[in-house]
Amino acid sequence: MDKILIISNRLSIGGAEKLLYELIRFAQANKIEPEVLILDNYATEYYDDILKQMNVKVTRSRIKNITHFRAPVKMLRSVIWSLKLKFFADKFYNSIHTLGLYNADKVLDTVVHKKRFFWHVNNSVQFVDGGYPYQREVFGDEKNTIVCINSYQITEIQQQYGTDYIKAKLSLFKLFIA
């Protein structure tokens, strides 16, 4: 059975979280086993119980800036996840899906895999200066796929980062059909 890892930072109520839920439903309907990693957030949130009922494994951990000296179990889990994603991700998962370029920006150097999908859930207008704050390297690897949920995102990325620099595949996945 194929297995995917979905990385996010929250399981509360919101657009990216609903996308996570829909990805899980799609995966399970297609005989793909989803696993979820929540970064730097240990709170119990809205989708935790729902995913538990769906038999989806959810882990909450850090994979960078590991400083749980007063919580050795959390520290050990963080170290294990960091090593797993840096050196062995291809062995455990067929692909890795990171929700939000803000999370892709965080895990870019830590999550090494030949099939990374970065789900883009924002538009540049949501940022104070009207531009994305993401490092250029998110777009510079041909093994990455940036999944955009509207065509404006593709235009914004191309305008801000330059079409010559963008090596990642830009893909459009219509989240809402009018």
If you had to describe this structure to a student in words, what would you say it looks like?
- This protein has 178 residues and is an alpha/beta fold.
- It has one domain (2-172): Rossmann fold (3-Layer(aba) Sandwich).
- The chain has helices at 15-29, 46-53, 72-87, 89-92, 101-107, 151-161; strands at residues 2-8, 32-39, 57-61, 95-99, 116-120, 144-148, 169-172.
- Strands 3-2-1-4-5-6-7 form a 7-stranded parallel beta sheet, with helices on both faces.
- Helix 1 links the parallel strand 1 and strand 2.
- It is globular and about 45 Å long.
- It starts with a strand and ends in a 6-residue tail after the last strand.
- The mean pLDDT is 88.
Overall structural class, as computed from helix and strand content, comes to alpha/beta
Flag low-confidence runs: none
Largest sheet: 7 strands, parallel
Rg of Cα set: 16 Å
Number of strands: 7
Short précis:
The protein is an alpha/beta fold. It has a single domain, classed as Rossmann fold (3-Layer(aba) Sandwich), CATH 3.40.50. It is built from six helices and seven strands; from the N terminus they run βαβαβααβαββαβ.
Give a quick set of tags describing it:
178 residues; alpha/beta; Rossmann fold; 7-stranded parallel sheet; 6 helices; 7 strands
SSE diagram, text form:
Layout: E1 2-8, H1 15-29, E2 32-39, H2 46-53, E3 57-61, H3 72-87, H4 89-92, E4 95-99, H5 101-107, E5 116-120, E6 144-148, H6 151-161, E7 169-172
Parallel strand pairs: 1-2, 1-4, 2-3, 4-5, 5-6, 6-7
